[in-house]
Amino acid sequence: MLEARDLKRDANILVAEPLAMQDELVDENWVANYRTNIRRILEGKGFENVVFLPEPFAVYLYYRYVARSTL
Questions:
Q1: What number of CA atoms fall less than 13 Å from residue 4's CA on the CB side?
Q2: Which domain holds residue 58?
């Protein structure tokens, strides 16, 4: 499936998390479990470097490095 999209097996991926997950409203153990499971799933799909960022910052990086280059 990755090959069909021309993605490399060693590709990096940014996972955007809602800002609410950065606050004390969400239990730290729940966030750690969530990240572990998402990382396991994505690594199983061929992504080696999984990075979690707050949603607004992830959107900014996408716009800066991807969307603007295709305009």
A1: 2
A2: 3-70
**Which residue matches tokens 């750690």?**
32
Asked if 22 contacts 54 with a C-beta cutoff of 8 angstroms, the reply is yes
The DSSP 8-state label assigned to residue 56 in this structure reads: H
Q: Could you tell me the pTM of the whole model? A: 0.65
Residue type, 32: A
- Mind listing the pLDDT tens digit for each residue in 17-49? 887 777 777 888 988 999 999 999 999 988 889
Question: What's the structural domain count of the chain?
Answer: 1
Within 13 Å, how many C-alpha atoms sit on residue 64's CB side?
A: 6
